[in-house]
Amino acid sequence: MAYTIQDIATITRAHATIACDATIEHLLIDSRKIVFPTTSLFFAISGPRRDGHQFIKEVYERGVRNFVVNKAFNGNAYPGANFLEVPDVVAALQDLAAHHRSQFNIPVIGITGSNGKTIVKEWLNQLLQKDFSIVRSPRSYNSQLGVPLSVWQMNAHHTLGIFEAGISTTGEMKHLAQVIQPTTGVLTNIGDAHSEGFESEHAKAVEKALLFANAATVVFGKESLHRFLSPEAADKALFPNTKHFFSWSREQDADLKILSEVKHEGQTIITAECNGNDTTITVPFTDRISIDNAITCWCVLLQLNYPEAIIRDRMQMLEPVEMRMQLKKAINNSYLLNDSYSNDLSSLDLAIDYLQQQAGKEKTTLILSDILQSGQYEEALYRDIAAQLAVRGIRRLIGIGPAISQHRELFTGIEALQTSFYHSTNDFLQHAGTQQFKDEYILLKGARIFEFERISAWLEQKVHQTVMEINLSAMIHNLKEYQKHLNPATRLMAMVKAFSYGSGSAEVARVLQFHKVEYLAVAYADEGVELRKAGISLPVMVMNADSATFDTLVTYGLEPEIYSFPIYHAFDQYLKQQGIQQFPVHIKFNTGMNRLGFEVAEARALGMAIRKDHTMAVKTVFSHLVASEDAMHDGFTEQQALLFNEACKDMEASLGYSFTRHIANSAAIFRWPQFQYDMVRLGIGLYGVDSADGNGLSLQTVATLKSTIAQLRNIKAGDTVGYGRKGVVLRNSTIATVRIGYADGFGRAFGNGKGCMYVKGTLAPVIGNVCMDMTMIDVTGIADVKEGDEVEIFGKHLPVWEVAKRAGTISYEIMTGISQRVKRVYTEE
Ligand SMILES: *Cc1c(COP(=O)(O)O)cnc(C)c1O
């Protein structure tokens, strides 16, 4: 469904400056995601740090001609462009989506709650897709922007909508309610997530209920709601227009009263009473969260009057929802991105975004199965996909399945796209050699029945069962958390030295570049070269440059730190020989660390030399705080800043121009906002570790080191474990051998009870000495441990700083000490 720009001006009550006719099919809120410029409408949305109006020029240059802006904007510089001026750009986006929603008279399920929204949405889709042509929120698009974009996908084929709504503060839900206009409301549960934005748990529950103000039917779990609202309030005041409630409960009377839950071999048999009859389903999960979500879906089916037999069949077939896209190292220096999340056009679009963000300039390959989607004619569907691929710069398409193979001509004509087609996954695995995959990024996108996990296993490097999982979404969360505390003009340099504190250079740098960090810093030139080879174009500071690496620095456009006159003169001479002028450099002053750096007293002489020699241009001047995290040394920190001010003043006076100044590391950003200057250097905080404990930031865990149990054995009291007979057991014990040792970075300091690992919800101590490739832990009494089970060495359950403390060291050393043979796996939520 398309709207003319005039229609949209009317719907959004905009003051319109229209230069030409236009038909709008796509709504765009991110300048990096332009696919169809001429039919896109760009919303210049202002966030806390970035103003969408800054991107209008870039977006215009890439062919977009339609813009929604706020009143302050002057559009004269853009010939042929249409501007809709509104007071609030986000509200205009929501109004447009709300109008679009009103054009459809189909049932719409709106889902909200603190947890489980996405799972319930995906499961309802799995349960109902045989009977409806469903439009639903992609992934967890449930925000003030995500909801309108989701609803915008509705078209005339659809017979059911399923959308989720998430809020973080009071006042947000009424907007989402207008956009979704649910006919049925589903409340998953109300927990403690995202409580900060609300006065009380009660206020949060009341706000969530606003989604259902006009829903005829509401499905909810009594326990979760009644923790916060009284039954009377729940029914009357909060749901004024609801005619029908459908509740479930384990403890109270309810439409679906749960009587028993029996767990058996990975399944749970749930028996409940409904309308006076007992009824039973079996679900392929045993954890409480999955069971609660499954019961919520069960209620929706009951409320839709599905027959018992169908409910039973379909509930048993529920499949886990893989919420994350995983980037893994694969054969021949390739990377594999496996997105089995869902298989439709809009999720393909998102997956390609992520692929390209990761791949940068590297080659990209899409391995795509038939898309099993009702409601769109096959030919039109593949024509749409071909149109997407044509503008996305994907280099190669491997289509697997009879339908995509049948429509191969739609793809073969696309310039610069190599194609090949196979009738089945077996056919592909038998005939495609692994050698054709090299130095590239491969996106796997397959419907479940195509079993792409077999392709994934085939392409993956299976080397060592210990992996370090890097959660890139958590890293971005942490970045934003620090950005919140920056003065508006302060820029950010991300420290990606030492393989990004062990997290992987190129992969991390790529994400940071995408999120518009201004500078990167590494310790050595080689680390910078690796970034350049991976296509990173951000400026990179090299902190430890020496004369052997000058050539490399210049060749790869890396900017050295100059910390002494000897290094200054050496680099100056080199640049003169090469005939290079004004090469960007960074000047480091020693203000108390006594490591590298000019003395403050040398500032004047240095400035004059640089001004006279003309070979270098000072980009930034900086120093390093030695104890910014520690209140005991606050006096010293202030002293350092005073010295730094003096150095900057003298440099600027003698140099004759100004430069960017920076001194703050992670801990100082928050503890010393007055020392943020023009830029800050964010290191360990990015990786989720707060070196000044409890300083009020909510950081997320980025790195999780995991391994598996290779063998379990029972031994008798008095037996010993490992080298040197150091691990003596005093009782009959169960010992697990884990596939990680000191060669992986799990040091001998953890031996003999010092260290522990997290197994099945319990901390199991290390027993005996740590070996080179293996470690034994005592798992006596831990229920259900099996060979092959996963073991967490550090991560969410066992924070890296606690692990570090046990070995008498700090998080930095543990993180950077994890050896390169441990495979890094990247995830994004
Ligand atoms: C490593 C480093 C940082 C970052 O320190 P964190 O404590 O990890 O934030 C900042 N500046 C310099 C010069 C560094 O070497």
TrEMBL record:
A Pfam family: Mur_ligase
Q: Which residues form the active site?
A: 497, 723
Q: Which GO terms describe its molecular function?
A: ligase activity
* Family in the record: Belongs to the alanine racemase family.
Residues annotated as domain Alanine racemase C-terminal: 702-827
Q: Which NCBIfam families match?
A: alr (TIGR00492), PRK11930.1 (NF008897)
Q: Which reaction does it catalyse?
A: L-alanine = D-alanine
Swiss-Prot/TrEMBL cofactor(s): pyridoxal 5'-phosphate
Q: In which pathway does it act?
A: Amino-acid biosynthesis; D-alanine biosynthesis; D-alanine from L-alanine: step 1/1
Where, in this chain's numbering, is substrate bound? 595, 772
Q: What does this protein do?
A: Catalyzes the interconversion of L-alanine and D-alanine. May also act on other amino acids.
The name under which this protein is listed is Alanine racemase
> Which principal EC class is assigned to this enzyme?
isomerase
> Where N6-(pyridoxal phosphate)lysine occurs, residue numbers?
497
Q: What's its EC?
A: 5.1.1.1
The cross-references to InterPro entries, in alphabetical order and at most eight, read: Ala_racemase, Ala_racemase/Decarboxylase_C, Ala_racemase_C, Ala_racemase_N, Mur-like_cat_sf, Mur_ligase_C_dom_sf, Mur_ligase_cen, Mur_ligase_N
Key words of the record? Isomerase, Ligase, Pyridoxal phosphate
